[in-house]
């Protein structure tokens, strides 16, 4: 007969979790704490999928999943809870299905919605830990304030290109996100995975570590990254930890006299929405822009397309009458217009800048026009415009043989 002790695990729990149960630092009492613990995972993408997988496997009692999105084929290289036949389906429903297959003892609650100031408190109030696995600034501030207002630790992760970061905010007197970043960055300086790219394994590493920190919080093990930031460089293979500034006493949300006592309008505060998949900048006037429909109709010999995407993107696909001058090269040039004239020597050719979605191409035209304005003796002799919507819209409206990425 089993005797009762520091835990309420069933015999099948004991067998199932035996490999972690027998760890001296863990034991049955920690497993029991996990069984009664809960975590709200916000964002079931590159970070959320590995985090949810390990937390479900580890035997957390209740997991909440928040995501408004559906599975896309371009998610599959890193969002490992999904499979090809789930493309187009709700992320939270697909994730729940996969997690229940893995561990049917875990209660999984799905919230297929954008987490906003209006629903966040109701959704999050019953969870012990909040795990930020989202990819945008507005949600980062929302989750930070939510964690402070509900007094829950926030396990925060991010991953881009080959790099990842991890830290735990608002834990045992440690700083919150606002203590470190009181103001959001300008929206045009923020890069996401669809613009900047990400190697699939990198969010896998960070999301797994987010699960580990969550397990430590729930079981009372010492948390590694409260007040400390992990910087992971997957290309060099380095893990670096930096100590963060302590809690700021005049922080607007967790300071001694907080100004923020309820959730605010984070879209207004950050100037961007959680579901802005692609920023639509409007830097240029209409007369400095050309539509893909018009571009398709004009004489091909009268212009040259200057594709200002990165070389690696140009190598993926490009239009036939185009050359590649990356925006970075143009911005590094002392005189961008002279660089352009030295490359496009045919004076009769007009120039249309093209990029992925039509943001960088506007920056390129502006760089050149600003430069022309400063060069006193320079006489503009050709039309320079940008292509609205970039190669993505060209593929959608004009030439479907161009791949979309
Ligand atoms: N406020 C929010 N409410 C609910 N879900 C959110 C919110 N903000 C972000 N998300 C979700 O967080 C996840 C982040 O995942 P990830 O960074 O891997 O990017 P993605 O949007 O899936 O893919 P990609 O950026 O490559 O198109 C997404 O599934 C997104 O829908
Ligand atoms: Zn703070």
Overall description:
The chain is an alpha/beta fold and 405 residues long. The model has no long low-confidence stretch (mean pLDDT 95). The longest helix has 19 residues, at 201-219. The chain has helices at 11-16, 18-21, 27-35, 48-58, 91-102, 120-124, 137-150, 177-180, 193-196, 201-219, 266-270, 292-297, 311-316, 327-332, 336-343, 360-374, 390-397, and strands at 38-42, 62-66, 107-111, 129-132, 154-160, 163-169, 228-233, 238-243, 289-290, 303-307, 322-324, 350-354, 384-387. Helices cover 35% and strands 16% of the residues. Zinc ion is lined by residues 175-176, 178-179, 247-248, 251, 253-254.
Question: How would you summarize what this structure contains?
Answer:
The protein has 405 residues and is an alpha/beta fold. It has helices spanning 11-16, 18-21, 27-35, 48-58, 91-102, 120-124, 137-150, 177-180, 193-196, 201-219, 266-270, 292-297, 311-316, 327-332, 336-343, 360-374, 390-397; strands spanning 38-42, 62-66, 107-111, 129-132, 154-160, 163-169, 228-233, 238-243, 289-290, 303-307, 322-324, 350-354, 384-387.
